[in-house]
Amino acid sequence: MFTAHPIGYIHSPFRETSAIPKGLGARHDAEGTIELLPEFGPGLMDIEGFSHLFVLWQFDRAAGYDLIAHPPTDEKRPHGVFSTRSPRRPNPIGLTVVELLRRDDATLHVRGVDMLDGTPVLDIKPYLSSVPAENLRRGWLAEAEERKDRGQ
Amino acid sequence: MFTAHPIGYIHSPFRETSAIPKGLGARHDAEGTIELLPEFGPGLMDIEGFSHLFVLWQFDRAAGYDLIAHPPTDEKRPHGVFSTRSPRRPNPIGLTVVELLRRDDATLHVRGVDMLDGTPVLDIKPYLSSVPAENLRRGWLAEAEERKDRGQ
């Protein structure tokens, strides 16, 4: 148990949840910035060398949680919250992989934001390796994509 | 700002930090379990369909943070904490990608743990897609690997 504090804030084009691309085939190429609080700026040393970053952030406009979620990619079928990216989670922590475009001091310009404007950032980590696509199984999401492709 | 609470605990073969494989070429294929607290078990519905999961957890045996880290993969060269996986972070949150082997009720059997035994788990999310390896740049880590390959 610990208290999570913002290290900075996201600036994104999304002012409300409905504006964020969601569901099957949604593209996540929106650009935004991560502005760290000045005292955390030195922690970004050498980050420019990484093409992609994990951003951990707070779902600060979600309250409470549900163990069963109804994701927009598969609306008719409920799934356990830990099988989804639902904002209503026991710990309101979001995770997004972004592409790092450039750095200006304590500000990172990134592509692939899916957070609301003003979202508190909790951590940034380098993206070091990928699971090869051929080794991935994606459960209900793959099934929902297949149904969509079949027009069902 | 919010208070993070455990949803469960990791059981791993690692009783102390020194036992965890670290540094260049370290393999992460240790098996372990994630045992959710019984009340969170229903949140795992449909998770069996996913081959890989993101596990968010608490560095519960690290105290305080440093903005400049000295990672074991590149000991002579300091890097900003957000360019590393150092445990001494402003928010003590760890992130590990694990392979899901099987589920028994509220217990997940996984491969790829690098957490200490007894580590509190904060969240589990499905791993949905990878950045293609050919698009990744890995900054100081790639440079350290090259130096090692050259025997420097």
Q: What features would you highlight for this structure?
A:
homodimer; about 150 residues; mainly beta; 6-stranded antiparallel β-barrel; 1 helix; globular
Largest sheet of chain A: 6 strands, antiparallel, barrel
Low-confidence stretches of chain A: none
Mean pLDDT over the full residue set of chain A: 93
Q: Tell me the fraction of residues in β-strands of chain A, as a range.
A: 25-35%
Query: How far from one another are the termini of chain A?
Result: 44 Å
Tell me what you see in this structure.
The structure is a homodimer of 152-residue chains. With 152 residues, chain A is mainly β. Chain A has one helix and nine strands; from the N terminus they run E-E-E-E-E-E-E-E-E-H. The first copy, chain A, has one helix at 139-149, and strands at 2-4, 8-11, 31-36, 52-58, 68-69, 79-80, 93-104, 107-111, 120-126. In chain A, the strands form two sheets. Chain A has a six-stranded antiparallel barrel. At the A-B interface, strand 1, strand 4, strand 6, strand 7 and strand 9 of A face strand 1, strand 4, strand 6, strand 7 and strand 9 of B. Strand 1 (2-4) of chain A pairs antiparallel with strand 1 of chain B.
Concise account of the structure shown:
The structure is a homodimer of 152-residue chains. Helix content of chain A is 7%, strand content 32%. Chain A has 152 residues and is mainly beta.
Question: How are the secondary structure elements laid out?
Answer:
The structure is a homodimer of 152-residue chains.
Chain A: E1 2-4, E2 8-11, E3 31-36, E4 52-58, E5 68-69, E6 79-80, E7 93-104, E8 107-111, E9 120-126, H1 139-149
Antiparallel strand pairs in A: 2-3, 2-9, 3-8, 4-7, 4-9, 5-6, 7-8
